[in-house]
Structure formats: structure tokens, C-alpha cells
User: Fold these one by one.
Assistant:
Number 1:
Amino acid sequence: MKITVVGAGAVGASCAEYIAIKDFASEVVLLDIKEGFAEGKAMDLMQTASLNGFDTKITGTTGDYSKTAGSDIAVITSGIPRKPGMTREELIGINAGIVRSVTESLLEHSPNAILIVVSNPMDTMTYLVHKITDLPKNRIIGMGGALDSARFKYRLAEALGAPISDVDGMVLGAHSDTGMIPLARHATRNSIKVSEFLSEDRLQQVVEDTKVGGATLTKLLGTSAWYAPGAAVSSLVQAIACDLKKIFPCSTLLEGEYGLDDICVGVPVVLGKNGIEEIVTITLDDAENTNMQESSAAVRKVNDLLEV
Ligand SMILES: NC(=O)c1ccc[n+]([C@@H]2O[C@H](COP(=O)([O-])OP(=O)(O)OC[C@H]3O[C@@H](n4cnc5c(N)ncnc54)[C@H](O)[C@@H]3O)[C@@H](O)[C@H]2O)c1
């Protein structure tokens, strides 16, 4: 199993580190355009191998896509991150060009790769990859919901005073401050609905804190977060590499599901060796469905800015 991660910045390197620590891949190639950067990150990470006990080989390259040839999975994290006060949508101008050229170069050398899109605005970048390639939809996956769900569980556990392992919950919709839909109605603590423990107001606070989870960290860090994003990507990669058939919310091309068409937005999917093996359609109530339609309408407006 060979995995390429394009962009050896904060998220790309964190993703490579978690993939290596989980020790399921034979090889991870980091690629960046900044001279020597990916090589340096790869060397630093390899020097953690004996300490962290993994055998995954991590190499780095400055822009040489021949080194990525034959990758089974490729992760696209290249592009600028947001700064405090910015929305993810504002990144489209620069990142669309980067994602387009990176996708073309990746597929030239790894025509069978499954692509995981991380660069923001992620739902629109995932849609862009669909538009510029003729890949089947199961091989184009946008990562956002796995991260947002991890943030939701963190906030739920905080409100409940419970260990995170006791908590389950999922976030659907767009990967944006206003478009995320934390499914509070379905969230549980060890199979008991969280509404049994939390007041409506407290639960609403959890939802709001989850939606601005990325913005809160960007304000604290001065740039966007990387540990949880990297861990979330590594979980998707592992589910594909190990054919786990696990459900994650991912951005995927919808063709009628949830009443939506020709748009990529976060919905539950089953991930296995073929990438997205199934789109899971769950019954949303009226409020959730309205949120889904509004969230998608906002993504569509950003998609309209693409030159495709
Ligand atoms: N989808 C999500 O959940 C999620 C979460 C966090 C961050 N992000 C996004 O991921 C992206 C990366 O964030 P980061 O914090 O790692 O940024 P970063 O600046 O630390 O790293 C980005 C890297 O991309 C490289 N790069 C730029 N153009 C390139 C090209 N054409 N080819 C190869 N490499 C190139 C840069 O040199 C840099 O090292 C941003 O767009 C950010 O908004 C998405």
C-alpha cells in the first residue's frame, strides 16, 4: 500500500505521521513545492520510527511526481490555510489552481489512485476534482465531516463530563462555519440519546461550538489546525487501505441522494478498498433537511466561482 500526501505542511505532515504510527502502509511519499521541505519532514518523521515503533517508509520529494508513481491513495493538502477572521471559502482563488494542477500530475503517475481532497474550501475542491477528471465517483473523497464529527464528540464529551469513548455523533453538510449540521438528535452517550442528559440550550451550545471549531482554533493558533485534521485523514486512509467498511461522513458527489444533485457535500458513506462503497441515506427530520438544503445552496454559490 503506497500513499502519497501532497503538501508537506501542517496537515500533510500530521497526516503522514498518523498513517505511519498506525503502521498499516508500506510507503508514504510526501510531496511539496517548497525546496527540500518534504524531504526534511520525511527525514524528521523517519527518525521517530524507532521511537514510535513503525516500519512505514516515509520519503519526501520537491515536486517530482515520478516518485509518487503507482500510489493506491493520494491525499491533497496543498494550498493555503485560512488566517484568523477568514472563511474557508475565501481560499478558493489560490487553492483551485493548486488543486487542479496537483490532481492532473498525480493521476498522470497514479491513474488508479483513490483521491482524498483536504484543501479548502473542501466541498468545492472535491467538486472541482470531479469536473476536471473522469474518475468514477467512488474514487474522489472529500475530508471534512470526519474532522467535524471528532470536534462534535469533543464538545459533547465536555458538556456531558463523559469520556470521549462513551460518546458518538456525526456532522453532515458542508465543511463550513455556517453549513455544518451536527446531528444532535442522533448523538448518543453509550447508546442513550444525549438529550436525556443535556438541556436543549446546552445541546444547542455544543452545536454552535462545533460549527466554529475550526475558526476557534485558527484564532488561537494564528493558522488553521493540523493534529485533528491529520488524524481524521489518516482514519479515512486506514479504512480504505484495510478495507474496513466503516462509516464516515465524507464529501461525495450526490446524484439524487438527500434530494441533491451535481454537488459534493458531507453525507455518511461506507469506506472500503474501493473508496466510497456506498452512500448511506438516513431519514432527516424537517429541520435537518432544511439545514441540508441551505448548506448545499451555499456550497453551490462557491462552486459557481469555479472556472470549469
Ligand atoms: N478539509 C479539512 O478538514 C481541513 C482541515 C484543515 C486544513 N485544511 C486545509 O488544508 C490545506 C493545508 O493546510 P495546512 O495548514 O497544512 O497549510 P500549510 O501552509 O501548512 O501547508 C500547505 C503546503 O502546501 C504546499 N503547496 C502549495 N502549493 C503546492 C503545490 N502546487 N504542490 C505541492 N505543494 C504545494 C505549501 O508549500 C505548503 O507546504 C489548507 O487549504 C487548509 O485550509 C482542510
Note: The chain has a mean pLDDT of 97.
Number 2:
Amino acid sequence: MRTQRQVVDYSLQKRAVLRDLLAGRIGTYDVCDASPYLKNAARFHGEPTDQRCPICRSENLIHVHYIYGDELKQSAGQARTRAELPVLAMTLREFQVFVVEVCPGCDWNHLVEQFLLGRDGLAGGTEDAAEQETASGPTPRRRREAQR
Ligand SMILES: [Zn+2]
């Protein structure tokens, strides 16, 4: 997504959890604890992936996108489908997205990444955006959206 910024990747933490599990320092009971809310969110708003669950290896993981931010008002903390995010990103200035992976089989769940979305990430905002402009030049599509 174009306005995506401040990405924090949690794959190291996930690997640490899986190492602890393999070493017997924690049990599957500790990590396969998806709440009914999370499982519902996965069922209705989740994004299927082709990644196998690292615990049961019988189901593919589902990514759930949770959104947070003052501008969202009562929608803050809700799950949204991935397709809804670019639309929100053009409507709001800034909001936080947390991506959680869930296994529908064994209830494994873990934070995948977090990032910011929103119009504040468009041209003129961050240094990253300025760098991209000089590297590739503004495309017609970029220019049209910037005028809205
Ligand atoms: Zn599983």
C-alpha cells in the first residue's frame, strides 16, 4: 500500500516463540490461545495466506488486520479486510494497522507486523516520500490522487 510507513516487523519475536516451543520452555497451550473474537475476525475479515501453520502444519494461516487511531472513533480496534485498507488510507490522515496471523485449526496466533496508513504518507509528508519522487518521478496516477 502506497501510504504504508513506519513498518515494524515481528518475525524475530515469532521465531523466538517457536524456538521456546521447540525447546519445551513453553507449551502449545501458551501460544495456541486465539480468542473467539480473533477467530471470528479471521473468519469474516481475514486474508487467507499460503503459509502453513508453524504449529499444526495442517491449516494455512489467516491474516487479520486490526485498525487503531483517533480518527476511527468507534471503529478503532475493529478488524478490516485487506481490501478496505487502501480506501480508509485515502479517507483518513493517519491510523495504525496491526496484522495478526491466526491458524483456524489449532488457534496459534501471533503479531506479524504493524504499520501506519493514511493520507499523511502522501507527497510532501515524509522524507521517504520525497526520495521516491526524485527516484522515479511522479506518475500521472500519483499526481491525480494528490489533487483530491
Ligand atoms: Zn495450526
Note: Strands lie at 5-9, 47-52, 60-68, 79-80, 95-102, 109-117.
Number 3:
Amino acid sequence: MNLETIIGLEIHIQIKTKSKMFCSCSNGGENSPRFGEAGEPANTTVCPICLGHPGTLPVANKQAVEMGALMALALNCEINRTSVWARKNYFYPDLSKGYQISQFELPLAVEGHLTIINRNGEKRFNIERLHLEEDAAKNFHSKDMTLVDYNRGGTPLMEIVTKPDFRTPEDAKLFLQELKLLARYLNVSEADMEKGNLRCDANISLRPVGEEKLYPKTEIKNLNSFKAVEKALTYEMKRQTDLWNLGTPPMSQSTRGWDENKLETMESRDKEESADYRYFSEPDLPPLFLNEGEIAHLQAIMPELPRAKRLRLEEEYQLNGVDARMLVEDEAVAGYFEAVISEAREWLEENANTEGTSEEIWQLNRQRLSKLIFGWLTSELFKLMNETGLAIHDIKINPENFAEFIILLYQRKFNSSAGQIILKKMFETGGDPEHIMEEEDLIQVDDADALEKAVTRIINENSEQVAEYKKGKTPLLKFFIGLGMKEMKGKADPEKLGELFREKLK
Ligand SMILES: [Zn+2]
């Protein structure tokens, strides 16, 4: 049977505010387990409001509303000028009030979309809604008891619901990764799935190709990583395909949990129907109003978003899509790259003017500089950062020094193996490259006489290889260059040596 997979996502993102959604309790701040390493002791960031004592009144957190709206705008959503808080009623020990304040009929924003890049290029996925709500407390289950930490109770969340637009588990994963990047660019959340500040439930069903109607969906919970999302959906796709082929497709909605150890989904409790929550508008909170001025302000403070940055980097620095993506993955890395390239181009401009370079050469030179910077940044510098576990804003090499390093390379003041030594020293000491180059005696020998002598000597001393080379075994050129580099104590330009050998051995 020819089946089509239908996937939709429901995503919760913890918002990085100072205080909780409806009271002034700390939202954990920079030190919360959600945002950093060590958290506050259990049940210490609580108050009568977030614990739901009678007679208390909630007040909506302005910062959470702004961050939610900012995300909604970045997702190209339509912001509802008026949205309404709603009570979602259910009983569970992690919910001290017996209800959760959320938004139901009139959410903060609707009808958005996010574009991702998959193996076929760009693809757009539609978003149904984005609403704000408070989180529940956290339960810790052990063998014979359950402990509840109310610190998380009442912290702000945004929930994003997509349209059932996904046809492959891979696209669902890529969408979540792009969403995480967006949240980080906007600084509204760390959006780290492993830490639980981005949580995702995935809905999946199959249908025969050509049919329009949707069949009962299965909701998969307990997905703690992007990989888990992809693996669980792939598993579920196969499970449901088998059911269809047996003539017994799922006839009712169900909920299944992902078991990371067994690598399979397991049936769990039946999904509550929406009506079970007995939603009604929250009587303790007025509707939420956002006016044109507030929305215009959010538009004005919107940073350049990942997709726009990728497209601009490709255009401005002649990078291919994969390379631009690599830089944009970390906003700080993209910023560093641009700072280096602007320094290097300034230098090039000054030098190009004095030499009166033609436009064509000028473009080629700019491109060569971009390539050098990208190459050394993403291979050698990333390697040093990986080895030491340092992030780009922690390293000792500032963009000016990195640009100077690249310019020296560009001018062939040293070769690439000397470059590796110099960069490592710069990384360790923060020193400037010219100084290190002199100190370590790594300046490339440009003395034509010395090179010529070395080449002649090598040719004379290796008559056997010379004869083979002349018979057509041209890969031997590498062998000659190697000898030449050794003779010049590693300080020659291998390209120049190659040229000399080729010429003499004609
Ligand atoms: Zn509180």
C-alpha cells in the first residue's frame, strides 16, 4: 500500500525571563538548571501566587509577553491585538492550583511559518498558533515515593503548534533545530532539548496517498533530543505502516512514550480529549492587549535572523550554503567571521588602491581572502577550540590579530605548516602573529638564489627519481617538494618549489 506520513509538532519553550509568568518569584535566572549549571534548592522560589493560595491574584509578566511576541513575529505570525487567558483544569500533584493558566480560544499569535533547509533546499512549514502559559511543577519519582519541586511551577512557557505539514521525521528534526537557533538569536530561551527547556510532542498518522482526510493520530511524548524525535518518528512510521499493511490501521487517538533504551514507542495513558480540560476564560486576569506601538517596537529591536544572515553571508562573502550555515549555527562565530573579514578587506582596499588593481583581480583577491578566513577559522581555529573546550568569545585571539594572521598568509610571509604553529601560539598567548613569526623564525624564505640552489642540488642527488619523473611518473613532484621543504627547514613556499622543479625537469 502506498502510504503518506503526516506529522505535526507541539513545542514548549521555557522563556528566559527574570521572574515567573504571574508572580515576582525568580525564574531561576542565569543559575537555574534550565539556564545554567546549578539550580536553586527545591521549593525555595515559590510564593502564595504560584502555589495557588486562595485570595491571591496573578499579574501577567510583561517581559514574557514581549519575548513571546518577539518569537511570534520572528515566526511570521499574526499577533492578536487582544488575546485571552484561559484556565485549563486538570488534577495532578504538580499543579498546585488544580488548573493551569494558558491561552485557548484567542492565543497570542496565529498563522506563521518557518523555513528550514533540508537536503533538497529550502522548505517552509506552517505554524498554527503560539500561545503563552505557565509551567507545572516538577515531579521526581523514586521507588516508593514522588517528590515535587514547585520552583518550576508558574514559570513562563510559550507553546508553538505547527500545522500537520511534515512528511518526514528528518524535516521535523530540522524544524526543531531551526526553532532552537531562532530562540537563541532572539535570546528568549536556551531552547536546549537535553535540559528540557525545549520540549516536543510529535503527532503522527499515515494515510493512503491521494486521500485528503486525516486518520487518528498517535502522540509521541518523552522526546529528549533532536535525534530522539527523528528516531521515534521513524519507528512509529514503520509500526503504523505494518498495521496498515495488515489491514488494521489505528482507529483511535493514542499516546505513546519513546523508550530511548529499547528504541521503541510504548503505549501510555489515553489522550485526554480537549473538552476534558473544561477550558474557560481566566476570571483573575484581564485580556492581554498589544498595541501597534508595542509591536512596532518589537519589530525595531528584532535582530538579523538566522535565515537572513545565511543568505547575506552567501551573497556578501561568496560562501556556499553549507559554509554559511556552519557560521550561522553560532551567532558569535558568524560575528567573529565578519569582524575578521572586515579588517582584512580594509587592508586589501588600502593595498589595492596603491597598486591600482583591476576590478577583476580585486574581486578574485576578495574571494581568496574570504576563503582563507573561512578555511582557517573552521578547520584550525575550531580544532583548537574543540581541544580546549573554549567558545569563540573566550579565546585570546581577537579578530584584528586573526585578520593580521590571514593577511600574512595571503602575502605568503609564511607557509601553511608554519601557519599552524603560529596560530597555536596565538591561541595560547594572545600574541600578534608577526611577532610570533619572527620569534619562532618561521618567515618564509623568498630568496630566489637559495631556492634555486636547493632545487639543483636535489635534482643532482636523485637521478633515479628524476629519470622516472621524466618518463612520466609525475606524482614524484611531491617527493621533490618534500625534499626541498626539508632542505629549506620548512620555510619555503611549497608552491614556488613545485614551479621550480617543474621548470627544471621539463
Ligand atoms: Zn511565585
Note: The mean pLDDT is 88.
